[in-house]
Description:
Number of helices: 10
Structural class: alpha/beta
Distance between the termini: 40 Å
Strand order of the largest sheet: 1-4-3-2-5-7-6-8
Number of domains: 1
Strand content: 5-15%
CATH architecture: Alpha-Beta Complex
CATH superfamily: Spore Coat Polysaccharide Biosynthesis Protein SpsA, Chain A
Shape: globular
Oligomer: single chain
Number of strands: 8
Amino acid sequence: xxxxxxxxxxxxxxxxxxxxxxxxxxxxxxxxxxxxxxxxxxxxxxxxxxxxxxxxxxxxxxxxxxxxxxxxxxxxxxxxxxxxxxxxxxxxxxxxxxxxxxxxxxxxxxxxxxxxxxxxxxxxxxxxxxxxxxxxxxxxxxxxxxxxxxxxxxxxxxxxxxxxxxxxxxxxxxxxxxxxxxxxxxxxxxxxxxxxxxxxxxxxxxxxxxxxxxxxxxxxxxxxxxxxxxxxxxxxxxxxxxxxxxxxxxxxxxxxxxxxxxxxxxxxxxxxxxxxxxxxxxxxxxxxxxxxx
Length: 293
């Protein structure tokens, strides 16, 4: 489990809360028999979704052992969560950043488990707890020797997936606390030609929160500042069809204080992130600050 790397705590600190929430909300008790995932080692028209949140107990996504024509896959890059969310360092402690990252990943994983339109789920990581959880879920692990950047990780994974017959690859970030399985399925159902990209921007329109490339190696990744414009430029240079989708839940990731404040304005009922924010005291702290201002 991801919580295995959490230090011991005798009091109900944010870290202790995140440990309990991790088990509660990922619902490992419902996973059933453990399945070993494959393990590959790396050598050194706009649309807004506003429907309510689906029930967390979704059935596992359909998986296919052999690539077929029109083989669609989802890629989840996971870095070491102990180093996550550095842009929140001014307002959250290291334990709080770790707890928040765990909770958001829990929500993202629950949504992915309910996806029906992906033939296979890939996870690229060198983070041991992520590999253990991926194995429990039967997802395929692409093991990295080291993590240099998300773009490098995604491009390496895209090459591997392409070699295995994947024709369309959707990269999802790990921090989408509002996402639902239907949001992801809808991206896969977008009609794509042989050379095309479907992109969902970040809340401010500058980042790339989801990107579905057909084929997976259509163009290189440029995750980071202004990635949406960079990816669009790459697609146009490649002569690919560009499809932009707007979806409030897919756009709501948390990178900085403004994102966190925006998230707290949403209904977080039945989410691991909402429960963690309340029980850690972070939500109350932000509400107090807002009143003071």
